[in-house]
TrEMBL record:
Pfam families for this protein: TIM (PF00121)
Organism, scientific name: Sphingomonas brevis
Protein name (record): Triosephosphate isomerase
Chief place of localization: cytoplasm
Role played: Involved in the gluconeogenesis. Catalyzes stereospecifically the conversion of dihydroxyacetone phosphate (DHAP) to D-glyceraldehyde-3-phosphate (G3P).
Localization per record: Cytoplasm
Length: 250
């Protein structure tokens, strides 16, 4: 099945008002790109980025599962939408590890975001030790099974508003990338899990690869079956690094 590619940048804890020019430059290039393009920004920058780049897809990097309440430092889906965001990442490994987020938390976050009307990029991925032990495919498959939003919640957003990002933890920010064969094996396995969860709608859910994607490796990675785009960290911060990756997704 042909799926339009999605290239999403994750700025993590980077970005000040001085960087808004980078965002508007990406948004202008995105108008004629052959792929969907988005930037997931720190919450503090979302509203100004939406003003600087009207119509461009700006996202958050996390969302709380509750609508509101005593959750110091967190943002709800309604708050992201209020700021002008149209999507959010959930379950990034840096949050799973540093904030102790479980698959159940990630599932609740994805459901809350989809119900509110956001698109969701749901991240899964294995550690170095799991890969070395030969358990990557089984571990990430069961992580996905436990993190996916319930079918009834997801139905309105599947396949259009839900994407999965396979991000091996050991490849994030390290310059290491799995072999093309390993990426293909994992994406094929995740496609099967999506079909098991959502039936034929699972065919339409985009599966992004993330972990040290750069201009020099993007085209080869995008050529793998069931790789429907990328989640890009470090190389999304500068337009000159990011736009060649977007270009490779044509
Ligand atoms: C990420 O953190 O989502 C990521 C893929 O980072 P990088 O591209 O820097 O490896």
């Amino acid at each position: 099945m042909a799926r339009r590619k999605l290239v999403a940048g994750n700025w993590k804890m980077h970005g000040l008002a001085a960087d808004l020019g980078e965002i508007s430059a990406v948004s202008i290039a995105a108008e004629t790109a052959g792929a969907d393009v988005a930037l997931c920004l720190p919450a503090t920058l979302i509203e100004r980025a939406v003003r600087a780049a009207p119509g461009f897809a700006i996202g958050g990097q996390d969302v709380h599962q509750s609508d509101k309440g005593a959750h110091t430092g967190c943002v709800s889906a309604a708050m992201l939408i209020d700021a002008g965001a149209s999507l959010t990442i959930v379950g990034h490994s840096e949050r799973r590890e540093a904030q102790g987020e479980s698959d159940a938390d990630v599932k609740a976050k994805a459901e809350s975001a989809l119900l509110a009307g956001l698109s969701v990029i749901l991240c899964v991925g294995e550690s170095d030790a799991v890969r070395e032990a030969g358990d990557a495919v089984s571990t990430v498959s069961s992580q996905l099974d436990s993190s996916l939003p319930r079918g009834d919640v997801a139905s309105a957003g599947v396949p259009d508003r839900l994407a999965v990002a396979y991000e091996p933890i050991w490849a994030i920010g390290t310059g290491k990338v799995p072999s093309i064969a390993d990426i293909g094996e994992m994406h094929a396995a995740l496609r099967e899990r999506l079909k098991a969860a959502y039936g034929e709608a699972g065919e339409g859910v985009r599966i992004l690869y993330g972990g040290s994607v750069k201009a020099t490796n993007a085209a080869e990675i995008f050529g793998v079956d069931d790789v429907d785009g990328a989640l890009v960290g470090g190389a999304s911060l500068k337009t000159s690094d990011f736009l060649p990756i977007v270009e490779a997704a044509r």
